[in-house]
Design brief:
The structure holds two protein chains of two kinds. Chain A is mainly alpha-helical. Chain A has helices at 13-58, 74-80, 85-115, 121-133, 136-147, 153-160, 177-202, 206-214, 219-230, 232-247, 251-256, 268-277, 282-313, and strands at residues 61-63, 68-70. The chains are: A mainly alpha, B mainly alpha.
Chain lengths: 314, 278
């Protein structure tokens, strides 16, 4: 406020008025808030949290299409001794970690590339998003065609390059099936990381680059000392999001291998679905689902805690 | 100096070419197969560019005995139904979460985030049994309800970001001038956030249009199938009709690609703003 000579002037009246209005509304605010969010809360509880509660309860039962039998906590003993559990867990971890790491690397490097200035940049940015926009089922079918031993172009090109001698059945060999799907998943999902990191690059303060240049920093120094630290929050968030989404990503594995061959490429969501709707073992399916949920919950909490702590100490 | 500029463009376009080949190759495969006549589809070795490109597969997809047009309408109905319902609910809630101070706000926001943590496979079993018990199985309604489970949280989260990006002073000014909170919301805020509402609608349509798991589980009769499940008509037990399948795939991609083309700016804004702001 401007200070004038000769006595104090009262503060402008509109400030008081505004404060008064806001205070009077505090109580109304509570009621309004409830009304505004009520519909979504009702939907959320009826459609999401109540079914989730049911899933937790189902884990204590042996449920088939015709009968329901209470087994209690003994079911969890059976779950932890289940012959598929180690494989599913390992597959899920390999699947998620490899996909997330490569989406990070590819997303960051393509964002850096698309952040350079060159004619046709807008078009290039639009084209790079396309895989992410393609419906998952269709992406799965197209990749099945690419991997196909007779019709697929992958085998053909690899043979021309002399890398393989005979067409290989990428999706029906137990050693390669999961990795073939992983490759497609990286292709399908990395544009999301590109989008996030492109947005992140826009908010890196330009003065920092200038300051680094004055200090004599080269391109790599600028990248590790300015770009990466400034983008830390967005990288942290993107990694967590892609981790959760990939861990729960159902369509690609289901469409491309169906968990096969011989159930060797199942991950949590596909195995849960198989148990429930191919074998109608609803109880066991619920147990695997709950395990999936609890793992992600614990992982996310730990991740958020450690990354926050690191940010505070910076 | 000039040499440096040439070098810069050379490297940029070289890397770009590599990236675009990787990104676009599957699209080329899809388009190529969709344009091949049957005798070209099964040649060995396969090749990418059709010798005699024609639209036969596309006519087949819409031809006699094909359910594609029906599936298309089903998808349109279910996706737009879910989108409208979610928008109606989410516009109010996301404003509440963005602006109003009420007890438990943080807790409820955390619940919305929590709902993203479990796989849809985890709640599909109870939902399936509830649908079965209420005789809703194999109806459009069951599918729309299924879609609400994941699109309500997404819609609320998306729109909240757009509401946060609007300066609060505008509503406060309107309220000082005698508007109620609700009037200020309807008259001032909603018109301002219209581009954000459009982007959210597009994103909701995008995720419901391609949903597969609920569509596979809840719909049992052929006439109510949606596209992502319907394209498996072309996958036989012994043999897959790749030409028709890829033509259908191209047609399914078109609506979402067009949506993205027109709303790219707002959509990217909606997807990234939450994370950028921390």
């Amino acid at each position: 406020m401007k200070k004038e000579r000769g006595g104090s002037i009262p503060p402008p009246t509109f400030v008081m008025k505004r404060k008064d209005v806001m205070k009077r509304n505090r109580k109304k605010e509570w009621i309004a808030g409830c009304f505004f969010i009520l519909p979504s809360l009702v939907l959320l509880f009826v459609l999401v949290f109540y079914p989730l509660f049911l899933t937790f309860r189902y884990t204590l039962y042996d449920i088939s299409l015709t009968s329901t039998r209470y087994l209690g906590w003994a079911t969890y003993q059976r779950l932890f001794a289940h012959r598929m559990l180690p494989l599913i867990f390992r597959n899920s971890l390999v699947w998620t970690i490899v996909v997330v790491v490569f989406q990070f690397l590819l997303g960051l490097s393509s964002a850096l590339l698309l952040n350079r200035s060159f004619p046709g940049r807008g078009l290039a940015r639009g084209l790079v998003i396309l895989p992410w926009v393609m419906p998952g089922v269709i992406a799965g079918m197209v990749w099945r065609l690419i991997y196909d031993p007779q019709l697929g172009l992958l085998n053909h090109y690899l043979r021309q390059l002399g890398i393989i001698a005979q067409p290989f059945t990428w999706l029906s060999h137990p050693k390669t099936a999961l990795y073939a799907v992983i490759f497609s998943a990286i292709w399908k999902g990395f544009p999301f990381s590109t989008l996030m990191y492109l947005a992140g690059l826009q908010i890196v303060p330009q003065e920092l680059y200038e300051a680094a240049e004055i200090d004599g920093a080269g391109g790599w120094m600028k990248f590790t000392n300015v770009t990466l630290p400034s983008m830390r929050p967005i990288i942290t968030t993107t990694l967590l999001l892609t981790f959760i989404w990939t861990f729960n990503y159902f369509e690609l594995v289901y469409v491309m291998t169906g968990g096969g061959p011989a159930e060797k490429s199942h991950i949590f969501p596909t195995y849960v679905y198989d148990l429930a709707f191919k074998r109608f073992r609803f109880g066991l399916a619920s147990q695997f689902a709950v395990l999936d949920f609890l793992f992600l919950l614990v992982f996310s909490l730990l991740y958020i805690r450690t990354s926050f702590r690191r940010e505070k100490s910076l | 100096m000039k040499r440096k500029i040439v070098g810069y463009y050379f490297i940029t376009y070289l890397l770009l070419a590599i990236l675009l080949i990787f990104v676009l190759f599957p699209f080329a495969v899809m388009l190529s197969m969709s344009l091949k006549a049957p005798d070209e589809q099964f040649t060995s070795p396969p090749y990418l560019i059709p010798h005699r490109p024609n639209l036969e597969n596309y006519f087949h997809v819409f031809g006699q005995g094909s359910m594609f047009a029906r599936y298309f309408m089903n998808s349109l109905l279910v996706a737009s139904g879910a989108t409208f319902i979610v928008l109606g609910v989410a516009i109010f809630s996301s404003y509440g979460y963005a602006r109003l101070l009420f007890p438990g706000r943080g807790f409820f926001l955390a619940l919305i985030l929590l709902s993203q943590l479990f796989p849809l496979a985890a709640i599909i079993v109870p939902l399936y049994r509830i649908m079965g018990a209420t005789k809703l199985i194999d109806s459009y309604i069951s599918l729309i309800i299924g879609y609400l489970t994941f699109s309500v949280p997404v819609g609320v989260w998306f729109l909240r970001g757009f509401f946060l990006s609007i300066p609060q002073e505008l509503e406060e000014a309107a309220m000082i001038d005698g508007c109620s909170r609700f009037q200020a919301f309807i008259r001032i805020v909603v018109p301002l956030v219209r581009p954000g509402i459009g982007a959210t609608a597009a994103y909701l349509f995008f995720i419901t249009w391609q949903e597969f798991m609920f569509a596979l589980t809840f719909i049992t009769s052929e006439s109510k199938r949606t596209l992502p499940v319907g394209i498996f008509d072309f996958v036989g037990q012994y043999e897959t009709n790749w030409g028709n399948l890829m033509a259908a795939s191209v047609l399914i991609c078109i609506p979402v690609f067009v949506l993205f083309l027109f709303l790219q700016q707002q959509l990217v804004g909606g997807l990234t703003q939450g994370a950028v702001k921390g």
